[in-house]
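Reviewer 2 asked us to include a model.

Predict the structure of this chain.
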Amino acid sequence: MTDNLMVYYPYIKFIHLFSVMIWGMSAMGAYVYYFRTTLFEVKKDSQNMELQQGLIWAYEQFDKTVVLEHIAFPVALIIGLLMFVMAGWTADNSWILVNLVIVVGFFIPLEVLDVRISHVLGPKI
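Predicted model (structure tokens):
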């Protein structure tokens, strides 16, 4: 069955890489360039209601990117596992072993903590 799917491997890899890019950059860019900037402006002039409304809007947009990030990560994991099976890799390959150690040992715990902070412990507006 995996031999039949190998025709689609480049497309599957594209979706995997696209998911990794969305996961890696979506919330960070929104935070640095929009939310944080608006937050600093509100701190300078805390009485300005227009800035207060802008901050609420920026937070809502930032939260949408966080949700997008938390959808892209499992997609990247699932498709990565699919590519692992399709290509017939094993843990004997040192590159894939290092990659799996990084994903399982660092990125998955980091993402679990991120989801907990942003959706469970985070502020609600």
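The two ends are 49 Å apart (CA to CA). The mean pLDDT is 85. We have added this to the supplementary material.
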